[in-house]
Specification:
alpha/beta, nine-stranded mixed beta sheet, three-stranded antiparallel beta sheet, 55% helix, extended
Length: 784
Amino acid sequence: MENANHQALSGVLGHINFARKIGESEIPDERLRRLISHFNKYRLLDEDFEFPDLLGAAYEYLISEFADSAGKKAGEFYTPRGVVQLMVRILDPQGGTSLYDPTCGSGGMLNQGNQHALQHGGRLRLYGQEDNGAVWAICRMNLLLHGVPDADIRNGDTLLEPKHIEDGRLMRFDRVIANPPFSQNYSKRGIQFGDRFRFGWCPTTGKKGDLMFAQHMLASLKQNGKMAVVMPHGVLFRGGEEKKIRIALLKEDCIEAVIGLPQNLFYGTGIPACVLVMRHPAGKPDARKGKVLFINADREYREGRAQNFIDPEHIEKIISAYDAFADVSGFAAVVDNKAIIEDEAGNLNIRRYADSSPPPETHDVRAHLHGGVPKREIEAIRPQAMAQGFDVGAPFSDRDPDYAEFAQTVAKRADIRALMETDAGVAARAGEMLGAFDTWWASAQTGLADLPETKRLMPLRRELLDSFEPAMLPVGCVDRYALMGAIAGWWDEIRYELRVIVENGFAELVDGWVETLRSALEDEEADDDEDSDVKKTVKATLEELLAHPFVRHRMADYVSQLSAAQTEVERIKAEKEAWETGDGVDGAEDWMDGAEDGATLPKVLEKRRKDLRAEMGEDDKRRKELVKTTPVGKPSKGSIDWMRAQGMNVRELEAELADLNRRLAPLVEEAEAIDAMLAPYEAIKEELKAARATLRQLKAAFVERLTAARAELDDDDCRELVLAIDRERLFDRLERARTRRVGTLVSGLDRLWDKYRVSLKHIEGRRTDATKRLEGYLKELRYG
């Protein structure tokens, strides 16, 4: 493959050796066989794909999944998608221009930049350099699979030896973007093109090489170009040589913006970072010359389990502030270079200029002492309450001109949320939002429905983005950042599906959904001894598959049956577990008293029954011999009845049998009592077994039901289904944004409850009442 595509793949694949041993470990032949067998099932040809760069999308997905699992090491080759999207939006590279990443990793920034240009009707010339040979190969492959075979990606240390040289000088580019390795040492020995670092040399020890990368990027920038680079916060305020470099950059007016990012965004480090946006002085617009824009976006993130994320909503807010280049209270500030140099000694610490800390909580001393809620604090919440259609006075009753108190309907804190959730005004505003959305969608869906014929994917994106905000903003319950974030995030979510529609139509997309769902539950290559693992996989993934929109929309009856079966299994399991603890079982306390930790009632009973059988032992065996009969009911040889029939004297045997019965009677009675006690539990187990069998049968019928649901749809049905699902996805994003803002309003009212519900006067009254009761008790006890 490399030989056949020398220009695009030279050096990328030839080094791979699947037979290589590391120590005594090697890839097992069986695993290689299964890998080959798996890929043999698919023809990886362009004409077989749902859209042209499907392999590129799959490769990008694998890189991101590997980054999620690689932990700290992932930071060497992968920058989170939200950060990349933000930087690309800032640089706004247009078709025909050049984009350079001196530390390109797996090529995510270059690819995103090119995708941005494609959305605007052009493509970029891509350049990059990566020090790690394996990551360099990944980058080459990534760009190739995304339809960029001609990207100029070099392998080597950018600081030591930049590879992009033209006529003996550094090449210059229209846009430069990078996320260099944080806090790295470097060496001056052998470094080439030292004039790149005309603003100063950072210390070679102490892991302070960050501004060396920034200077290289600036030296690689065309006079009218623009660059964006991720930096750790330390470069903004550390002293020494880094301070001198900052001041020199400010004096030459190279710094346009400093954007503070939230913490815990990047793989391998939880520290907050920033984005420096830089230009040559002549490249700055006149309105921005001699100034630096500080944006403090450290609170603009969505919290995740292992790391935080920047969503489209946050990107829109940051980009809006960057484009406006104006002060925004608590978020953005424009500061003169001269003031930064003279008043702050070149310190670029963002919080000095744009402090996003919430204002200190106000407290009304009179309310704390005498009770009541200050009306001015209620009025401060009124604008956001009005946005949601809520009368902010509803939870309160009037007390005097300056103070209110919580209404009788608000007896506890949770009543505030309940009041909001049932409020007619809030419901009406939500209805207004739905009405405005449906009106917009009635027009917007036409463009989506016509995609197979018009192929106008990127123009449609622009039209939808431009029309969504004017249609929805007048409703007022969601701000413009959330609106633009919702539709931008929605488009990003369905972007690959839209490309399938453009290339092959709606029916092909639905077929793709069905095939994805089916293949997730089928493993034709599974060996017999792998059945248990396959079953575990099915059990783990089926619930996720049931949440797929195709299943929810077209298999609702099946989902209901499955849900009912699952509920029945859980009900019986709960009943079984309750029985095992003895909950509600007559006589359980006597049996569980003194039982070992972790013992269950059935185990205790079964152990006692086993002990009884052992205790009966030889006596029971002998008794059975004396009364034994044949299968047809005749006395067996050696039994008392058989001996009696033979005319033998059986008095002693009858006496022996009577004695045995006398000794065994209490043991048999106890065993029968245990059997009777365990009978309901055995019935529960049988019921659970049957319920689980029903659930397994329903799960096994998933693919059959799936196939039947697809067969019911013609091409028009497929189009209507996809449009309904896309509408649902976008409105869900919008509704989540509205719900978050209602939640913020509830939190504001909750704070008033927490602050003013209990006053000092109220506490003193309770203390007086408690004192009187105590005195009464003392008098009754004759201690008064």
